UniProtKB/TrEMBL annotation:
Origin: domain of life: Bacteria
InterPro entries: ATPase_NBD (IPR043129), ROK (IPR000600), ROK_cs (IPR049874)
Family to which the UniProt record says this protein belongs: Belongs to the ROK (NagC/XylR) family.
Protein name per the record: Glucokinase
Pfam families: ROK
Gene3D superfamilies for this protein: 3.30.420.40
GO MF term set: kinase activity
């Protein structure tokens, strides 16, 4: 009897897979690195191999799998069949990944924007179980967003709602992969944090990460915990820009809850403190509630 679901999170840094039961309980998970610059066929093959390996390593049969859920960053067409565009996977355009996966495994397949899937997962079995409205931000290589209003996922007229990462907060800011300038993602993503660290370091700011090779957001976070001033400044600035985005969300939607997830949440209070001290007017002072979640490998797939 089919009693579990495979979920795949197609990230710009990692491909993550997991298996859940029909109640949303995580049974098994697996992760591999994404070759984001690879051609679509190579990445598609990686996805197929990851699904097969996840089923094998979980020691279940393919017949035990009721369906497969795919969460992808960027734009998904209105029919939920094709990935139109993914800023963090530059060579992905109009990829019919749902058909590719469904044909290979002969299983029903659902394709959804990854942050939409994350938002519905938290509504289903996570932080937002008791909330009728919530906004979810996934903070990782990029910044994704998902919105639930009146217990329904809000996709917008053309299936492109909740691209919060591409909300412009600085019109003359650095260029974003989406083509605009000064997007939230430029400032509040792991990629943006690394970029700003390198800018400060290259301008002569001293850091304990000198001679550390390729800098990552995790390295910046670890250095900040040890008191590295450049790293602390970068994370504080990241928190301030993220806070601006959250206040704008509250002004427009006033959801019951904002859920933050993703690898960057590992910075904890270093990232959250700059948000908590931002000035808020009127009702926002009383209604902003941020649920801080440590990232779970299957966090973006639990609702599929």
């Amino acid at each position: 009897m089919s009693n579990c679901i495979v979920g795949i999170d197609l990230g710009g840094t990692n491909l993550k897979a997991g298996i859940v039961d029909t109640g949303g309980r995580i049974l098994h998970r697996l992760s591999i690195k994404t070759n984001s610059s690879a051609d679509p066929q190579t990445i598609s093959n990686q996805i197929l191999e990851l699904i097969a390996e996840t089923i094998r390593s979980a020691q279940i049969k393919e017949s035990d799998v009721a369906g497969i859920g795919l969460g992808s960053p960027g734009l998904v067409d209105k029919t939920g069949e094709t990935i139109l565009f993914s800023p963090n996977l530059p060579r992905w355009r109009n990829i019919p990944i749902k058909r590719i996966v469904s044909e290979r495994f002969s299983k029903p397949c659902v394709l959804e924007n990854d942050a939409n899937a994350a938002a519905w997962g938290e509504k289903w079995v996570g932080a937002g179980k008791e909330a009728k409205s919530l906004v979810m931000l996934t903070l990782g290589t990029g910044v994704g967003g998902g919105i639930v209003i009146d217990n329904k996922l809000w996709r917008g007229a053309n299936n492109v709602a909740a691209e919060i990462g591409h909300m412009v907060i600085q019109t003359d800011g650095p260029p974003c992969k989406c083509g605009n300038r000064g997007c939230v993602e430029v400032y509040a993503s792991a990629t943006g944090m690394v970029r700003r660290f390198k800018e400060l370091f290259d301008s002569g700011a001293p850091s304990s990460l000198k001679n550390s090779g390729e800098i990552t957001a995790r390295m910046i976070n670890d250095a900040a915990i040890q008191g590295d001033k450049v790293s602390l400044d970068v994370i504080e600035e990241t928190g301030r820009y993220l806070g601006i985005a959250l206040i704008n969300i509250m002004h427009v939607l006033n959801p019951e809850m904002i859920v933050l997830a993703g690898g960057m949440i590992g910075s904890g209070e270093l990232l959250m403190n700059p948000i908590s001290v931002l000035p808020r007017k009127g009702h926002l002072r009383h209604h902003i509630r941020i649920r801080r979640l440590c990232f779970r490998s299957l966090g973006t797939m639990r609702g599929l």
